[in-house]
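Sample pair:
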Amino acid sequence: MNYVLISPSTDAYYNLALDEYLLNTLSREDRILYFYVNRKAVIIGRNQNPWLECNLNQLNADGVQLVRRISGGGAVYHDEGNLNFSFMCHESRYDEKEQTGIILKALQTLGIEATTTGRNDIAIDGRKFSGNAYCRRGGIQQRHGTLLVKSDLSVFDRYLKVPEKKLVAKGVKSVRSRITNLSEYKEDITADEIIEKIVNAYYAKYGEACNYPLENADFDEISRIQKKNESWEWKMGEAPEFDYIFENRFPWGMTQICLTVKKAVIEKMRVYTDSLDNSVSERVQDKLAGVRFQKEEIFKKLPSLEGEAKDIAEYILGSFE
């Protein structure tokens, strides 16, 4: 059976939970095309480091959601000017060229000529407006992607550029591409209009489709996945191991603080200083080991710290501002 589903929500945690739920439960006989629009959110890949990819302080200040998806790829910004799609079917019937053809045909009916690039993105005159990421579970292949319709491109660097820090990552760093909105080529274009044209092209390729039925039991499981998406453990704790290096002149001397962070928890703290007191490093070493690399958790640790260790923790806290 062929299905189409359009999410009524703009909550990225919910929409990506539904995306994952469909991947987990779709039968091998079925095919689905799922659409959703998120309000302001930064979506990072499964193996990405949010401290490296995002300006976390700015996201929090502006109320922008941070969501980790289950697929690979780079960090992207979503808002209500961005339309998201997801093709899913059994791997034996999965054909990416057919799917891309559906999108290209839909855009052609709107007077927009686009082409694919070497990275399976879709572009106009070399300017990207659609990127893709992939996941497979239980023989079901998922390809989800974006269509920049009328997104606020001016804020990309505001949220996707980390403040200047000496962050040495062992994960995957995104590669930024030249991007554009479809509205630059058709000023009055809307997401609803694009959905209509893509669905028509989908029908033409695979035959008529039904609205995907969701029951109460489905929503219970979607809610469980949504809670996982919202959790600190998934968003932050799934970051790959990385080192965070601070340098500052304290009253006792110039000091370098090296934190090894694993699963978003400080695993090791090493301190190097030119202090005349050669016991400083030894006394403060690993005083933050086992603490989440999170402002609130480091703050909770302060009462148990003294002297140089407390000064270092307060300095690290300031870096979260």
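The first helix runs from residue 12 to 25.
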